[in-house]
Amino acid sequence: MFGFSSRDMGIDLGTANTLIYIKDKGIVVNEPSVIAYDKRTSKIIAIGSDAKAMYGKAPKNIVVVRPLRDGVISDFDMCAEMLQRFIGMATGEKKISGFRVSVGVPSGVTEVEKLAVEEVVMQMGAKDVYVLDEPTAAALGAGYDVDSSTACMIADIGGGTSDIAILALGGIVVSTSLRYAGDKFNEAIIQYIRKKKGIFIGEQTAEELKMNVGSAYIDLDDDGKEIIRSMDARGRDLVSGLPKTFKVTNKDMEMALHESMNMIVDAIKSTVEKAPPEVAADIAENGMMLAGGGSLIENLDKLITEKTGMAVTVAENPKEAVALGTGKSLEDIEKLQMYAKDSKR
User: Fold this and answer.
1) Sign (positive or negative) of CA dihedral 89, 75, 55, 162
2) For 9-142+320-343, CATH number?
3) Comparing 9-142+320-343 with 146-315, is the CATH topology the same?
C-alpha cells in the first residue's frame, strides 16, 4: 500500500506547461503544453518548446495547437498524443504499463472534465489514476502539512486557471477557482499595448513582457520615486502596418495588469470570507502562500498584503509546486486515495 515505484509518476497537466515528476529523479519533463502537426499528412511535427517556437510563424499546412484551455482539455486527441510523447521523454519508452499516476487539475473542473483527464492518462497504460485538485497538490509541493488541524491557504496562479483554497485535515475547506490567469494576463497586455501605443503584439511577446517587466506594484526608491525598469519589444504599427521596436516599462505593465491583479485579490478576499471563523483565524495568524507561474509577477505578494493585511509568501519553486505535490502524494497511497476522494466531493 505504501511507497511508490520508480515507474509511478506525478503529472501537472497545465494549460501553459506540462511537468512530469518521477521518484528519485525529480521533475524530468517541463515543457510547454503545445503540439504541432502537418494537417496534410496528420504527422506530428513537434511538441513542447519546439512547437511553441512555431506559434504565430507556421505556414498554412502546419497547425500549432494548445490542447488545454482554461485548465481543461479542449482537444482530446492532441492532448493524448502530446502526453504520450512527454511520458516517452520521461521514461524512454513509447508506452508503459502497470504504473500509477497522480495528476493535478484545477479545483473548479467538472466531473466530466476530470474523467477526460483520467481517460487520457489511462490511454498511456496507467494502472491507477488519482486526480488531485491543484491547490492540494500545490500545498503539498510547497511543503504545507495539509493533514494538520491548523488551516493553510494557497493561491495557485497558472496559465489557464487561478485556484485559491484553504485546506485543513487533508481536505479543502473552501476554495475559489477562476478561469482567469496567465493567458488572460497576456490578453490584457496585448489590448493595453494596442490601445495605448497603437502597436499590435503577439502572445509570445506579451508573455516575454509579463515575465521580464510585469509588475503588480511599483517599488519606490529612498526619495519616494517609482523605480522604473524597461525593455524593448517588437510589434506591428497599426497605422503604417510596418514592424516597430518600442520600449515597455514596468509602469506600463502595472497599468495593463491592474484589473487582472484586482480580480486575483478579490478572489482571495472572497475565499477568506467564505471560511469558518476558526479557519479564518488560522489564516490571519499564518498568512498564505502563492504558487504557479503567475505568482512570479513582481510584487504581487506586496499588493495582496496591502489589500488584505495578510502575510504572503511565494513558494520556493512556484512553477513546480503542483508537479512536486503530485509526486509527493504518491509516497502514501492511503492518504492519496483520501485526497483524491476529497477532490471529487
Assistant:
1) negative
2) 3.30.420.40
3) yes
